[in-house]
Amino acid sequence: MEVEIKLRLPDAAAHRRLSSFLAPRLRRTHDQRNLFFDGAARTLAAGTAALRIRFFGPDDRAPSRAVLALKRRPRIDAGVSRVEEVEEPLDPALALACADDPARLGGVNSPIIRLVASEYGVGGNAAPFVCLGGFRNTRAVYELEDDDEGLGLVLELDEMRFDFGTGYELECETAEPNRAKQVLERLLTVAGVPYQYSRSNKFACFMAGELLP
To answer: Is 116 exposed, middle or buried (0-12, 13-18, 19+ CB in 10 A)?
Structure first.
């Protein structure tokens, strides 16, 4: 179970303000391309599941790495997201081949692909994978090693670029969501950055074709 705090920022100005405030704590930045896969009948989506390949690096044809992930049964309440997640590294060349020919994904030797085939019936000849499309994301990663709660939080500030618009979100994976949310809320207040609790995840926004709150 992945547990995260998700706080949505209203616009680019809020994103810039928070980026500037957190700049001394910046550790790395990732260029990400996210592609989603399902059967033609959208069987995974109907079962509140998302199968994703995430590519890392600025060059679409030469990613530094790729990760295959299955997320299921998401729940978000007051900015606290809980979702069942399994992920594994995928050879970047193989991942690119699957992006170009999604049906190839069904033949990948992977526990995730076998799980999807057995539980959702997607990936075989009867229901080959199709690519639903995706979005790009720039993720800045910050470390709060000396926060008041002593949690040692890792913050991820996302700029999500969909075909229909750009959204901004602050995330923090944690085993103590109530304490972590208090730290993040206090930080945003001190920084003078407006925010609201996220009520939907990135995949939901992608599928809806709009920037859901």
So the answer is: buried
Using alpha carbons, select from 11, 10, 21 the residue that is nearest to residue 184: 21
**Would you say residue 86 lies in a domain?**
yes
For residue 132, give the CATH number of its domain.
Answer: 2.40.320.10
- Give me the residue label for tokens 């100005």: 13
Selection from 193, 162, 203, 200 nearest residue 79 by Cα:
200
CB 112 within 8 A of CB 86: yes
- Tell me if 213 is assigned to some domain: no
pTM above 0.70? Answer: yes
Q: Is residue 177 part of a domain?
A: yes
Backbone dihedral angles phi then psi of residue 104, each to the nearest 5 degrees: -65, -25
Distance between CA atoms of 32 and 137, rounded to whole angstroms?
5
- pLDDT tens digits along 54-106: 999 999 999 999 999 999 999 999 999 999 999 999 999 999 999 999 999 99
Contact 22, 95 (CB under 8 A): no
Cβ–Cβ under 8 Å, residues 204 and 212: yes
Length of the chain: 213
Whole domain around residue 147: which residue ranges?
2-208
Answer for the pair 34, 134: CB distance below 8 angstroms, yes or no: yes
Which pLDDT tens digit goes with each residue over 184-204?
999 999 999 999 999 999 999
